[in-house]
Hints:
Strand order of the largest sheet: 3-2-1-4-5-6-7
Number of strands: 7
Helix content: 25-40%
Mean pLDDT: 97
Order of helices and strands: EHEEHEHEHEHHE
Distance between the termini: 28 Å
Shape: globular
Number of helices: 6
Low-confidence stretches: none
Strand content: 15-25%
Amino acid sequence: MKIIIVGAYGDIGKAACNELGRRHDLIRVGRSSGDIRVDMSDRASVKAMYAQVGSVDAVVSAAGDVEFCTFEEHTEETLMTGLQQKVLGQINLVMAGLKTVVDGGSFTLTSGVLDRDPIRMGVGAATANGALAGFVTGAAIEMPRRQRVNVVSPGLLDVSVPRYGEWFPGHNPVSSERVGRAYAKSVEGAITGQVIIVD
Length: 199
């Protein structure tokens, strides 16, 4: 398969690349690095990416910013960061890519653990994650040409613990290998409209 991986150089993106790269041709995409650059929150930038790449079998997104702060510190603007970047950015990849992804191809998005196992200062991420779950559930039944859409929802990755572990007290880290296999399940399997949980 020819697969676009957006956010290929983050911890989750690397896990997806390590697994899928064993069997498929990957196009690594990032906001500031990669084979191609894209700003997911800008539909024109996403369309330009697809125009440059041409037809693909699958799109994997492991990108999307959110603001971490206390609930009382949140403003409409800070919450909009997660909605604009993590939610609408990933939705842009799907909507702009419908004609580029082949018949029976797939889109795999990324959410996270915080809408089902919250932490302090995580309300922005929890909100975005819940929105992505709703999107794939609703979009799956209307995808054209047998295309599929899922979202992988991993816990804190083992490789991320040195940077973020103190924010996740009591959470059991998940292995990068297991997270990578979740992306393989979505891309290479047959499911659609699913939240693929990796706890």
